[in-house]
Structure formats: C-alpha cells, structure tokens
C-alpha cells in the first residue's frame, strides 16, 4: 500500500491545538479503514520560529515542501508579527508557488447545529465555493506614492487572465457535474468592474457551452450576499474570484453555524505540486491556549486531504463520524453552544469512528 508524505505546519495560536487532534483522528480512521499509510513530517514554521530565526520559511523550505504529497496547515498569524511575514511570507506564496489555484470551501448545515437563520432543515444548506486562489484582487500588484502626506496615493490592481479564469471555472463545472443537483453559480460585479470581471463572464459563458448537463447561472456579488442569507439552499457549486470567494465563504460558514466547522482545500489539480489543506479560521489569539477551540474544521479539512489522496473510504468515515457527534449533540465546543474542550470533541469523533 502506498505511503503518502504529509508536511504538517501547525503554525500559531490554536493551529497546533486543532492540528494534533486532527492527526490523531486520521491515524484512527486509517487503522480502522486502511486504504493507504501516511507519514507525518512536522515543520516548526510559525511566528515563534520567525522570532527565533528571522524567517518563517527556511531557505530550502519550499524545496522541502515540494517533496510531500500534501500539506496540512493549522494557522499562521500572531498579533506581534506583521502580516508581511505570515500571510505574505508563507500563505499567499504557497498558493502561488505551488499553483494551488482552486480554493475549495464546502458549507453544510449539519443536523444538530443551529443556523442563525430561522427554519433551516439539516442538510438544506449544502454548497461548495470554488474560489480563485492565485490572482484577481489579491495579485500583489500596485504601489504607494507620497505615503503619509496629503498627496498620499495607493494603487491596488486586480489581475484577471483568461487562463486563470478558465481553469477555476472549468474546475467548478467539473465539480458541479459530479453533484446531484448539477448547478453552478458564477459570482462577479461586472456592472461596476468592467474589465476583469467581464473577462471572467466571457470565459464563463464560453466554458458553459461544454457543460449542457450543468444548470449554470451568474449573479452579482451584492445580490449573492443577500441570497446567501435569504435563501442559501439555492446554491450548489459557486465559483468566485479571490476576494469575493474569501468574503462569501465567511458568510457561508456563519450561516451553517460556526467558523469552527469550516474546512478548506487549496488544490493543484494537475498535481505538479502538493495541495494544502487548512481550516478556514485563523490563529484565533482570543481563545488560544485555553483548549476550547473547535477542532472540527481541522478534522474536516483532513477529510478533504484524504479525498485528494484518493483515500475515499477514510474521508467519508471522518465526515460520518463528525456528523454523528454533532447530531448527538452531547460533546459540543463553546462556539456551538457547548462546554466540551478541543480534546473531548476530538475523542468523541474517534469514538464515533
Ligand atoms: P485570519 O486573519 O487568520 O483570518 P481572523 O482574525 O479572521 O484570522 P480567526 O482567527 O479566524 O480570525 O478568528 C475569528 C473569530 O472566530 C475569533 O473570535 C475566534 O475566537 C473564533 N474562532 C476561530 N476559529 C475557531 C475555532 N476553531 N473554534 C472556536 N472559535 C473559533
Ligand atoms: Mg479571517
């Protein structure tokens, strides 16, 4: 049976608190369901590591990472370390260097988890957002002139390429085709942003012709924000630019109960470089060290990792165990209204497995 090598960057704050239990859950599920073996390679890269060494990734770090089959990341970010080090030194370069152009973020309303929206049946919200992850509004293009003076000017340029639009849109169509509802919604703001977003629409309308079996539609982002709250059940697969996808997935996480349940994958579909799996939440300095972080977002992210490694039975078993724990409702972390600790939640998942 093949062994997959997993690089683990637990990172800062609650990152290590949720990643170690998630690793234990994966080891437990593999003991039970098999399907392959994993080798965990823990890398200490974090804000603390930066404070000791002056860099967050060592000089041969990207080469080291590239030798792995997948990367499992907790969170990087610390109130006393600038985001130029964490976000712009590790997270964003990883997505670009490893061409992880698909940021996949599922949102599912589990039985037993109350939605802040009224009258939502379990399973009624069931969407996957495909967020473009390498260009768009997060392209590091722009500059600042006359900083701090009355003439201060900032230029922040979004970059949309035909290739970039086409590959994320195609990935979303492929995903929609495999789901029962076969529905895809593209989100733009073409009425106000008449260049990049119009290119996106052009590409969407041309790729659409190759997928007559998929019900494809477009929505402006402001209308989408309303509908994510007003009628989130209409969405199946959603495809959006880097910025819009980022914002809308915080919204989709909230309408399904808690950011503590939101998992994500940063995927390089061609597998030229490793893909990366991480909870949507950050390092949560406000609750770090208290042992109360919800580990389910990290645990569900490992299920996405097992999907990518084609260890499907193990991935499905993790999702089923999480669903069972939530449905039973006895072991819930504080973000879901309970009193259970991080460890207790992870142990309940292992028991359900
Ligand atoms: P980032 O900049 O990395 O996105 P952020 O500042 O947006 O981080 P998070 O770290 O995601 O913030 O935290 C946002 C809020 O959600 C905080 O109040 C935090 O305590 C809460 N939170 C985040 N993750 C969890 C979790 N796993 N369990 C419980 N609460 C969480
Ligand atoms: Mg955030």
UniProtKB/TrEMBL annotation:
SUPFAM superfamilies: Isocitrate/Isopropylmalate dehydrogenase-like
GO biological process, one term: L-leucine biosynthetic process
Pfam families: Iso_dh
Keyword tags: Amino-acid biosynthesis, Branched-chain amino acid biosynthesis, Leucine biosynthesis, Magnesium, Manganese, Metal-binding, NAD, Oxidoreductase
EC identifiers of the protein: 1.1.1.83, 1.1.1.85
Catalytic activity field: (R)-malate + NAD(+) = pyruvate + CO2 + NADH
InterPro entries in the cross-refs: ICDH/IPMDH, IsoCit/isopropylmalate_DH_CS, IsoPropMal-DH-like_dom, TTC_DH
Entry superkingdom: Bacteria
Keyword NAD: yes
Co-factor requirement: Mg(2+); Mn(2+)
Claim: Magnesium is one of the keywords in the record: yes
SMART domains the record matches: Iso_dh
Subunit composition and interactions: Homodimer.
Family: Belongs to the isocitrate and isopropylmalate dehydrogenases family. LeuB type 1 subfamily.
Protein name: 3-IPM-DH
Protein species of origin: Tuwongella immobilis
